[in-house]
Each structure stands twice: as C-alpha cells, then as structure tokens.
Specification:
Order of helices and strands: HHHHHHHHHHHHHHHHH
Helix content: over 70%
Number of helices: 17
Largest sheet: none
Shape: globular
Oligomer: single chain
Distance between the termini: 24 Å
Length: 445
C-alpha cells in the first residue's frame, strides 16, 4: 500500500517539471512580441492577430497531448511497454497529418482568417506574412504536443521541460538574428519560431524513437499503422469536443467583456492573463493526474487510482487556496502594476479578488478533469463540458442584459465565469468521480 508521502512525491515528481514546461510555452509569443514590437505598431498588431490564430489552433488540438498521455500511461501500467510506445507513435503520426492539413488550409484561407479577427487594412499584410512564415512549424508543434503526451504517459515530464526551456532560449536567439541581423522583419520572427518548433519536434521524436528501437529492435514499429492512427483520431474526438466547449465559454466571456466599455475590456484582458497564469499551475496537477490515474488503471489497481484521486484533490484545492490568498491580498498593487488609469485599476482589482476566491474550486475542477482524461472517460467529459457551457451561457448573457456596463458589469461577469461556470463544471465532475463508471481497468478502456 503506497503511503501519503510516496503519493506526494509522485505528484511533485510529475507536476513540477510539467509546470515548468507549461510556463516555458508562453515565452515563445512573449519573445516574438518583444522583438517585433521594436519594429513598430503595425507589425506588432499583425503579430497579435496571427498569434491569436496560431494559439487557437494549438489549443484546439491539445487533445493530442492529453489523449496520448492517458493511452500510453494505461498500457504502461498493464506492463506492456511495447504497446504503450506503439500507441504513442500512432498519436504522433496523427499529429503530423492533422498539422499538415491544418497548415495547408490556413495558407489558403489566411486572408479571410485574418479579416475575421478584425485586422486593420494597414496591419493585415503583417498578419498574413507572419502566418505564412510560421505555418510550416504548425505540424511540428502538434507533433510536440503528441510526443509530450507520450513521455508524460511514460511518467517522464522532465524531458519535455528541458526541450521547452531550450526551445524558448533558441527561439529568442533565432528571432533576434533573423529579424535584426538578417533584416527579415516580422517574417524573420515567424521563421525563427517555426525553425525552433521543428527542432523541438525532432528532439522529442528522437527520444520516442530511441524508446521504440530499444524495446522492439525494429524500424518497422515506427511505420504508421492505419488502424492505430484511426483509433487515436476517434479517441481524440470527445476531448476535441470538450476543448471546443471550453473555448466557446471563453469566447462568450470575451464577447460580454467587450461590451463593458474600454475600461472594462482593458481590465478583463489583464484579469484573463492572471486567470490563465494561475491555471497553468493547476493544469500541472491535472497532467500528473492523467499520468498517475492512467497507470494505476492499466495495472488493474482501482483502489490505488481512488487513493491517487483523493490526494490529488487535496493538492488541487490546497494550491487554489494558497494562490487565491496571495492573489487577493495583492489585488490592488497588481492592478497598479498593470495600469495607471484609476478606472481600470478599480475594475481590475475587484475582478482579481473575485477570481482569487474561485481558485480553490478551479483547483478541484482541474484535478478531476485530469483524472477522467487519464481514465479515458472522454465521452463523459465531452457531454459534461457541453452541459456546463450551456448552463453558463444564459448567466453570461444576463450580465450583458442587466448589469450596468463598466466595473459593476465586469465584476458580475467574473462572478458568473470564475464562480458559476467553474461550479457548473464541478457539479458535472464530482458525481462521476464519486461513482465507479470511470474505474475501468486494463490495458484498453
């Protein structure tokens, strides 16, 4: 019987490197923004539009990491390392194919896509340039997601951390060299990022390839298997639906925030950054949940999986409490740090206190979300995510209809988003976790 201390060590062993990798990822866009920003307002505006499109594409396909983690961890737990690696290879081939298709479609539709996000006539050429030069890196970025999922499933979150940090450093150096040294402007920034993504994909793929060769002694095991790739795709559909439901809720929140006036949307933008940043820490625990629960169920240890869940919930809620207390106590100075405008500061400070109070709930939700992903319970998660978004939508629209625009409207929006929407997700997840339908043991769910 594993002790609480041993459980905690396993959680930290997986979650801490995962958090580091998650924090390294935003450095790509930050580096691009800092370097391109010195070229002028229009290039930076173009980067903002193109970057939003690329970030959306990557977030939509995050199931490539999550689904692969669950599948590989379950098969590893069953003692079948060869099958675990083969499933990982299938996921990587799926990622490469999806990335190639999406990149080609995006190239053909770059004009309408840029226009859909409201790029000005002056910024439009810069957005299209960045998009065209960066899209060759999109298949590589999706392979990075899938390969990261493979390694997480194998209980290795350190290698993705090393690759992510190295990639962030190389990306910055390449951008400076190509933008200023080679004089390529915004195209150099996009090309530098694409080259970095290709290098990261090659590095992670090489790690997986070495594992496959060591286990099978054959190059044939690396060939794409039609049935395996198709299975990975079908298994990913429910998680894709889950992600789209979450994105829909976020888009609706932004829509309502945009109607709170200039001060309201400015404060909302910063509050969203704060929410996203704290979510990274909680997502690291969700990643640990995916790997640990998948492995336990694969090993036929339902009781062990239950024990892991109980401990992970303590970690999730505890982390939410700590971050919430810190963030709430710093709400006013944090608001002052981001803006000198008194109206925006007041709105941001109030919204920050609200979201800080909701972080313990969010910690619980993130962990349970990771538990069910690790258990391969994607179909339930898809339905639960749609139900939660459907419950949230009328509340958000009620804020739009009845709350006075400005600070009051923004506060109420964060009450229903961080509070009611998170609670709605929790209501759908807790009964499922308390029941036993997700506790399916064996190498395959």
């Amino acid at each position: 019987m594993i002790t609480v201390r041993e459980q905690d060590r396993e959680v930290l062993r997986l979650a801490v490197p995962a958090l580091g990798a998650l924090l390294a990822e935003p450095l790509f866009l930050l580096a691009d923004s800092a370097i391109v920003g010195r070229l002028g307002v229009l290039p930076l505006a173009g980067l903002g539009v193109a970057g939003a499109l690329l970030a959306t594409a990557v977030s939509v396909f995050v199931f490539l990491a999550y689904g692969t983690t669950a599948t590989v961890a379950r098969r590893l737990g069953s003692g079948d390392l060869r099958s675990a690696l083969q499933a990982g290879v299938d996921g990587m081939w799926l990622a490469l194919g999806l990335g190639a298709v999406v990149a080609l479609v995006a190239v053909a539709a770059s004009g309408p896509l840029v226009d859909a996000l409201g790029a000005s006539e002056a910024a439009r050429p810069f957005a299209r340039t960045y998009l065209h030069w960066s899209l060759p890196g999109l298949p590589a970025m999706l392979v990075v997601l899938a390969a990261t999922g493979v390694l997480r499933g194998l209980q290795d979150t350190t290698t993705p951390l090393v690759v992510a940090v190295t990639g962030a450093v190389v990306n910055t150096a390449l951008n400076v060299l190509l933008v200023y040294g080679a004089g390529l402007g915004i195209a150099g920034s996009a090309a530098g990022t694409a080259l970095t993504q290709l290098g990261m994909a090659a590095w992670l793929a090489a790690v997986v390839v070495r594992g496959v060769r060591r286990e099978t002694g054959s190059w044939a095991a690396l060939a794409p298997r039609g049935l395996g790739v198709l299975t990975s795709a079908l298994d990913g559909v429910p998680l894709l639906v889950r992600t789209l439901a979450l994105r829909a809720a976020l888009l609706l929140t932004t829509y309502v925030a945009a109607r709170q006036g200039d001060a309201g949307i400015a404060a909302h933008q910063v509050a969203t950054v704060l929410w996203t940043t704290t979510a990274l820490a909680l997502d690291a625990l969700a990643i640990a949940a995916q790997a640990l629960v998948g492995r336990a169920l694969g090993a036929g240890d339902a009781a062990g999986a239950r024990g892991q869940v109980r401990r992970l919930v303590v970690w999730g809620v505890g982390a939410g409490v700590v971050m919430g207390v810190v963030l709430a106590s710093l709400a006013v100075p944090v608001a002052s740090l981001f803006t000198p405008d008194p109206e925006v500061r007041a709105a941001l400070a109030a919204a920050t206190v609200v979201l800080a109070c909701c972080l313990p709930l969010a910690g619980w939700v993130f962990v349970l979300d990771g538990v069910l992903i690790g258990a391969g319970d994607g179909r339930y998660l898809a339905g639960a995510s749609i139900a939660s978004a459907a419950a949230y939508a009328p509340l958000a629209l009620a804020v739009l209809a009845w709350a006075p625009p400005g600070r009051t409207g923004l506060v109420w929006l964060w009450v229903v988003f961080a509070g009611a929407y998170t609670a709605a997700r929790l209501v759908t997840l807790v009964p499922r976790e308390r029941g036993g339908a997700w506790l399916v043991t064996g190498a395959v769910r």
